Amino acid sequence: MLRGFKNFLMRGDLITIALGLVIALAFSTLIKAFTDFVINPIVSRLQGGKSAGLGWQLGDEGNKATYLDIGQFVSALIYFIIFMAVIYFAIVVPYKHYQARRGVKAFAEPGPVKTCPACLSEDLPEAASRCLHCATEQPPTTGVGTRPA
Question: I want to staple 39 with a disulfide (CB 3.0 to 4.6 A). Which of 30, 35, 112, 139 is the partner?
Answer without folding.
Answer: 35
